[in-house]
Amino acid sequence: MGKANKKRKPQVYKNHFYTRPWFLWTLLCGVTVGLLVLIGLLLFLKPYKERAEEFDFASINDLEVASSVYDNAGREIGRIYTMNRRIVRLTDLPMHFIQAITAAEDSRFFEHEGVDYIGIMRAAILNALAGRTTQGASTITQQLARNAYDLMERSLKRKIVEAFLARRIEKEFTKSEILEMYLNRIYFGSGFYGVYAAAQGYFGKEPRDLTIDESALLVGLVKSPENLTPLRHPERAKNSRNNVLLRMKTEKMLHESDYLQFKARPVVLNPKVLKDSYVLQRVRAQVIQQVGFDKAMEGGFRIYTTIDQELQQRAQEALQEQLTKVENREEYGHETYAEFQERRDRGEAGRQNYLQGAALVIDNRSGRVRALVGGRDYEDSEFNRALQARRPAGTGFTTFVYGAAFEQGDHHPASLVLDEPIDARRVMVGGITGILGEWGVESNVNYHAGEITARQALLFSKIGSTVRLGEEIGLTRVLDFVRRFGIAMPAERYFNKLFVGQEPISLKEYCRAFTAFPNGGVIPEELTLVDRIEDAEGRLVYQLPPTPPLQRVTDEETAFQVHHSLRAALEEGTGSQAYLRYGLEDETAAGKTSTAYNFTDNWFIGYNADLTCGVWAGFDFPRGIYPGAFSNETVLPIWTAIMNEAYRRQPPGEILPPGTLTPAEMCRISGRPATDYCYEVIDAEGGQRIMNRTTYTEYLKPGQAVTGRCHVHTRESDLLFDREGSLAPWIATPLPYAATGATSVIPQAPVVEGIDPYAAVVVPVLAEAIQDDVTASDGTTVRKASVVRRATGGRDDYRVSLSPPEPLNFLESF
Q: Measured between alpha carbons, how far is 686 from 89 in angstroms, rounded to an integer?
């Protein structure tokens, strides 16, 4: 009964939450919202996916390839490009480079399908912990998509299109193809696109020869190429390289010991081509002119230039070295190149106006440019001073005044001109009162010599003499002569200041005009830098004619008369420091110093039988270089260094006179026709004295003649030797009336009957009139002894030993 009265436990049924209505409703709503979100997301992503589908993969690997530029020996000297790039195959890269790029840029490259979702999550977490963006999640495929199709907008929309495009790329191409396209396209800084250009540009080597640390350095540049370039920021580049090495160690691609070894290495660059240059600038212009802009920009050409690489390098070095020396002079008071570089590196604003320079070397016959320096630093200024600048020509322009006079025929190098002070009002340079200066003599010490030959006036740049000669032949004749030589002279009114080089001229015009003198009166029609162009398949696109056309600007005789004077200008005139001080090795060279008024511009233009070289120095915004800055101190050393380099590699031939010119022996002391007594004694080493002929050969055109005789050397003296056999001083005393200005009367026939073998009567005779033999009236031949041209002052190898005659015994005679 008791049992029957016990309470029965209630039955409990478990009711799960997911069976409850509220959950079912929540789940339904969630799924509905999810589907709606998904549909919305798909609808949102649809236009981006469609945009990604629009990109044509046929152009994904269309790369503008740099055109290679070679010197005249076939050696690469640079590239011209919009983007400096050359294609390289993945198989030509070392494995450690591929490891470095994947470790640093996309460690899961070979696992994902274009978008690395794990990498995105990892980057999001790390960025959240850091409180800023420290990690990126773009894969190599996404970077390729971005670069290939210029998706550079910084927005979420761009990232979405990029992701869809990356997935398309992964389906279309293999991993190897993607990596190869990527490495040929990405930018490595300093103008280098693609791994080939970077390897060549920074290390001067083929990509397959890159070491592990070099590979890591290049890979480290990808994130911020210009901020990390080792050319300007070596420490930043080194830190970035070490981060890449650390990533390689983390990814088990490097052992700890190797990591520490490569991390400790310094950054060592061996650049093959670092930057653009004045040569490449001009080559680019000529290529565009020959093949058209569109084709030139496609690139891939092989361009063979006329440049001589060694000569080009020497010209650049010599110009930089010498202008630095000029800047270090005590009297130089302007900002130097080094000071400007420091100011620029500090980021201080302001234009550059340090001392600039230019040099140009051309082949005389073809006009091919062998070296071109347009300034001291192309990065500071792209203005090409060798081809584009026009500056006052300076006293070198007097060459054309004398050339115009010689061409006329009434004047020749032995013609007399007056070297006396001249009123400044006749020239209007630097003032309208007082006496015109003589800055052309290239010295602070000046003198006036009275009557001198045109040759002497030219080789010493006598301004007063030049102005008088220019006035005599006329401005019109000088202008016509100059224009024929290819120097631009607009049809304006000119004044006498033209004669002393106050009109502007370019270095290109100066050099081209001067080729007429070694060329016998002809000049090349144009100057050229490009010899031939081949396309990527080796087909000839352009070829310079083997014998470029020449144009005649003056007659052969005039050209040689000017050349002969310019040869003297370099030997004994204003350019003589080339031999005496700077060590010019070429004994056939000729040239002319050229200093502009107030020392604003310095030039030297000179040549040999093969090449003409011109050098200029001055400021882009004109001002005096320093007080007394003469061209034989500033630019002549540069010219000498360039010409010595050319001479050592290819000695030139002689410049010979045309057969139509008649040689005449002239005395360089008096400037008059020489006699057989034109000698002077000079002191030699060891206290010896040497007797030298004071003459030179002048060349005259048919119908030209010189009058008079040397009035300095007019009397023959005995040659007396002392007991040691050395030469006693030679006495060459003018006749008493010479100082009075009286004209000497020269006998036209012997004043002694018969033969006078002992010169009992002294009669000055022109040296060229001396005969070896004299035939007497009775038919006998008397040998005529010539005056000794050079005595040796006791040198044993020249001494003639004679036995002394027996002494006369006067007592026995009786």
A: 73
Cβ partners under 8 Å of residue 40, min gap 6: none
Tokens 């070979």 correspond to what residue?
A: 110
Q: Please name which of 655, 93, 652 lies closest in space to residue 370, comparing C-alpha atoms.
A: 652
pLDDT tens track for 782-794: 444 444 434 444 4
What's the pLDDT tens digit per position in 559-584? 999 999 999 999 999 999 999 999 99
Rg of the chain, C-alpha, whole Å = 42
Q: Which is it for the CA torsion 725, 726, 728, 730, positive or negative?
A: positive
Closest CA to 83 of 188, 156, 235: 188
pLDDT tens digits along 670-707 = 888 888 888 888 777 777 777 888 889 999 999 888 87
Nearest to 336 by CA among 325, 347, 345, 346: 325
Is 605 within 8 Å of 594 (Cβ atoms)?
yes
Residue 514 neighbours by CB under 8 Å, 6+ apart: 399, 605, 606, 607, 612, 614
What DSSP element (H or E) covers 44? helix 21-54
Tokens 């000297």 -> residue: 77
How many C-beta atoms lie closer than 10 Å to residue 581's C-beta?
Answer: 13
CB 627 within 8 A of CB 331: yes
CA distance 793 to 405: 43
Distance CA 626, CA 633 (A): 11
pTM: 0.72
For 204-248, the DSSP string reads SS-GGG--HHHHHHHHHTTTSHHHH-TTT-HHHHHHHHHHHHHHH
Gap between the Cα atoms of 647 and 585, Å rounded: 7
Give the residue from 598, 606, 597, 618 showing the smallest Cα distance to 574: 606
Q: Give the chain's length.
A: 814
Distance CA 158, CA 290 (A): 41
- CA-CA distance, 640 to 586, in Å (whole number)? 9
d(C-alpha 699, C-alpha 439), whole Å: 29
d(CA 279, CA 615): 16
What is the chain's mean pLDDT, rounded?
Answer: 82
Q: What are the Cα distances from residue 573, in Å, to 332, 477, 598, 700?
A: 26, 26, 21, 21
